[in-house]
Amino acid sequence: MDGLVAGPLARSVLGPVLLVGPTIPTVIRTELTRRGADHAIIVGGTGAVSATVAAELVALGLTVDRVSGTDRYATAAEVAKRVGLTTKAAIVASGEAGSLVDALSASGPASALHRPIVLVKKDSVPTVTATALATLGVTVTTCVGGTGVISESVRTSLPACSRAGGVDRWDTAVVVASAFSGLVPPTQVTVTGGRDANLVDALGAGSLGQLVLLSPATASGSVLAWLQRTPIITRLNVVGGTAAMPAVAVTGMRNA
Questions:
Q1: Which helix or strand (DSSP H or E) is residue 212 part of?
Q2: Which of 4, 94, 165, 201 is a plausible cystine mate for 240, CB 3.0–4.6 Å?
Q3: In sequence order, which residues have a C-beta less than 8 Å from that of residue 192 and are 6 or more positions away?
Q4: Which comes out higher in pLDDT, residue 83 or 196?
Q5: Cα 108 from Cα 32, distance rounded (Å)
């Protein structure tokens, strides 16, 4: 899921996050043509985005850069270096299977604030992550997720790290939105599905640079409560089809 850290990079070059399979889908080819794109940044190694896709992009007339590492932690570190810093702040999320979803809720504010996302394990900070933070001169971090996702020992080992975590992924997204609402005005909010089967649909949401809420099949109580106490919201931008974001969930949030 290298795309989880791609939002801030896409935002920094004023481009979208587009998804491919073993080859470039027709809809993506059409979008590249519509945009008149002449440059593509591939995030991830050839196991994530194949050499065939890179060759197809070149054949379409695009210059291609690949940003990747030996694993997801190293790829996130390389992306972070490419994003750079406008402040000395970064966002830290879990890179472990089963906890990757928390990076989705962080991608929107990370993109808006030009803060890279780096990945850690529950009980350790990979060397590539620590090196990237040091190389970038990061002095402030935000850890996304509760202690079941990022342990307290990891949090305290990171530069001035505050935790934004809840009891589950839905609540964590709300806590992240609250933590960044003073820096990213919540006049428009992105809402996307956070269930495991729908995570791919949400990968492009972060580059919009808005606060991101995750919703189960029906809007969770914590999401509805946050919407009710945030009266300045004028628009909800729903990302994903009805399988990812059922109409009943959207209606519940709209009426909150």
A1: strand 211-215
A2: 201
A3: 104, 198, 201, 202, 205, 212, 213, 214, 215, 238, 239, 240, 244, 245
A4: 83
A5: 23
